[in-house]
Every structure is written in structure tokens, then in C-alpha cells.
Amino acid sequence: MTSTGLLCHCRAGFEPDLAAELTDRAAEAGEAGYARAQRDSGFVEFLGDGDALSKALPFDALVFARQKLVLLAELRGLDPKDRITPLLAAITDAGGTRHGELIVEHPDSDAGKPLSGLARSFGNALRPALRKQGLLTATDNPRLPRLHVCFVAGDHAFVARSQPGDSAPWPLGIPRLRVHADAPSRSALKLEEALLTLVDDTTRERQLQDGKTAADLGAAPGGWTWVLARHGLRVTAIDNGPLRPHVLEHGLVEHLRADGFRWQPQRPLDWMVCDMVEQPARVAVRMGEWFREGWCRQAIFNLKLPMKKRWQETRHCLDLFRDSAGLPLDLRARQLYHDREEITVFAVPPRRR
């Protein structure tokens, strides 16, 4: 059996946006495919040649996909008394590949969450059966493909595969982060997730350390400033509103009551971060100006999206950002788990990666 397409997880309610993104990107890459999506389901099927589509649509380039899987089979009408036999047959028909890990999951949606107990218990039952047939290693092997079984109902499941390096390492693409007791706001989780998922290991190691400098535009109440200061960065927090008092206790934070669209640093900074609530096009142009003027070496910023045509607005704003910057940039944009009606962008000149 050849793979039948891609299975991509997303935030519930954003299925039309992910479907539009996959359709446009596949067409630009010259690959045939069509999306099948249901609003609030938490996933999108993109049907076609799964292996070819996977190569044409690398995970790092996708914005609205939390996870990208190569779809191997869809099984309906599963007998609750024996779901394992048809699943083993489907996996064998898909090539009998040996996998380094099994992930049994369910969509992150109102309909999917009640399936968590089934996913957990079924995974415990399926693992020994897979190992007995040589389809799963005795212990997790991060170098081998991962096998995914995604239940969308008790009798309906997808079988899929992910490749390390071209997918998220967590079930459903959701990193498990917790709000620190001292965090000024839950927005701190957005920056922590961005640093974990959008920034590569080398950049994190070299650029998030004592002595580095940063500006936080629209800083109040101080969630993103607090994250940077915890890494040892000296942060200039720009906002006319107040910061939580304990954010200033680090001794690494200077709070300036100024407008983030007007303030500029006296010397180049290592980082600029921005989570201002403003029209995304205006933010995109301002972010590009920071790179054009050489005010920062890398940046993480959010773009608040409209309620409709969010993929089209995303493309428009990223184009505005590149045009405003006027220089080559590596960028990764993603709707993170802790984002809501927004996407997060990490940008850096190629030589800095």
C-alpha cells in the first residue's frame, strides 16, 4: 500500500486555514493533492502521493500545522473487541517498516479529548503486538520513523508515520509546558514555546546567555521580558503600561515608558521580541524596519490574525515583513499551541544560524 497523503494536526477552528495553506504550497511545488477538512476537528487530511507531498511540504515551512504525518491508512468500522488485528494488517500492508516509537493519540478537539483513555490503553496493548511482529523496536529509538495511530472515534482511526527531523517530536505536536509560579502572565509560555520549537539548538546555546541584550516591544505586564531575563539577557522593556514589580527585581531589566512603534535602540541588540496587539500588517512592516536598520540580530514576534482568510493574511504579512527588511532572512512562522488568533515568527539573517 502506498501512502495516501498527509495527516496534519492543527488548532481546532483553523482547519480551513491549514487546508488553504497545504493546497497553495502543494500547487506551488507542482504536486497534486486536495484537502479534506471538517471545522473544529483539529486535523486536516491532504490526499495525494504522501511521500511526494511530504518532500514538497517540509514541516518547518508550515505555519498552521502543529504536526505533519504521512498518512498510511484510514480504518473505519473497527470492532471494539479486536482493533489490533486490522491495524497490524494495515501497518504490514504499508510496507512493514520497523519503527522506533509508537504514538497513539487523538485530535486536540472537543470531540477528540474523550478518546484519551482509549488512546492510552490501546497503546499499552498494541506495543507488545508490534514488537512481536518486528514492527517496533524493544526500546524507543529516536533515529527511526515513528508510528502514529490517531483515533477520531472508537471505531475510526488513522495510521500514519512521521520522520524525525521533519515533524514535531511530541504527540499532536504539543510540547508540555507549565506556567512558572513567578511568571507575570501566561503569555510567557508563548515565548518559551517559540524558543523551544522555532529556534535551533545552536542559536539557543549561543544567543540565550549572560551578557546578551534584548528589547521587548509592548512588554507589559512583562511575561516575555521575564523569560529573557531568566536566561540572563539584559532587557529593555518598552511599554507605556506598568510591569509586574518582581520583573524588575532581576536587575537585568530597564523599563522605558515609550511607544514600541517609535522607540529605537542606541546600539544594535542581540534580540528583539514583540507581542503588541496591533494590526498584523503594521507590525510586520515595523519588524522589517528593525532588520533594515540593523537594530537587532534576531527577532521573535507575533502577528494577530483576523477571523477570516487567516492564511491569506499570513502570506501578505510575511511578504510585507520581507519587503520592509530589504535583506535575506531565514524565518520560521508557526501557530504555536499557546497562541490563539495569532502566529509567531522567528527571523534571523542566514549567517547567524
UniProtKB/TrEMBL annotation:
Its EC number is 2.1.1.186. One of its GO terms (biological process) is methylation. It is an enzyme of class 2 (transferase). Residues 82-162 form the Ribosomal RNA large subunit methyltransferase M THUMP-like domain. It catalyses: cytidine(2498) in 23S rRNA + S-adenosyl-L-methionine = 2'-O-methylcytidine(2498) in 23S rRNA + S-adenosyl-L-homocysteine + H(+). Residues 185-277 form the Ribosomal RNA methyltransferase FtsJ domain. GO terms for molecular function: S-adenosylmethionine-dependent methyltransferase activity. The active site is at residue 304. Its main location: cytoplasm. Keywords: Cytoplasm, Methyltransferase, rRNA processing, S-adenosyl-L-methionine, Transferase. S-adenosyl-L-methionine binds at residues 187, 220-223, 239, 259, 275. GO terms for cellular component: cytoplasm. It is found in: Cytoplasm. InterPro entries: RlmM_FDX (IPR040739), RlmM_THUMP-like (IPR048646), RNA_MeTrfase_FtsJ_dom (IPR002877), rRNA_MeTrfase_M (IPR011224), SAM-dependent_MTases_sf (IPR029063). Residues 5-69 form the RlmM ferredoxin-like domain. HAMAP family: 23SrRNA_methyltr_M. Monomer. Belongs to the class I-like SAM-binding methyltransferase superfamily. RNA methyltransferase RlmE family. RlmM subfamily. PANTHER family: RIBOSOMAL RNA LARGE SUBUNIT METHYLTRANSFERASE M (PTHR37524), RIBOSOMAL RNA METHYLTRANSFERASE FTSJ DOMAIN-CONTAINING PROTEIN (PTHR37524:SF2). NCBIfam families: PRK11760.1. Catalyzes the 2'-O-methylation at nucleotide C2498 in 23S rRNA. This is Ribosomal RNA large subunit methyltransferase M. It comes from Luteimonas aestuarii. The gene is rlmM.
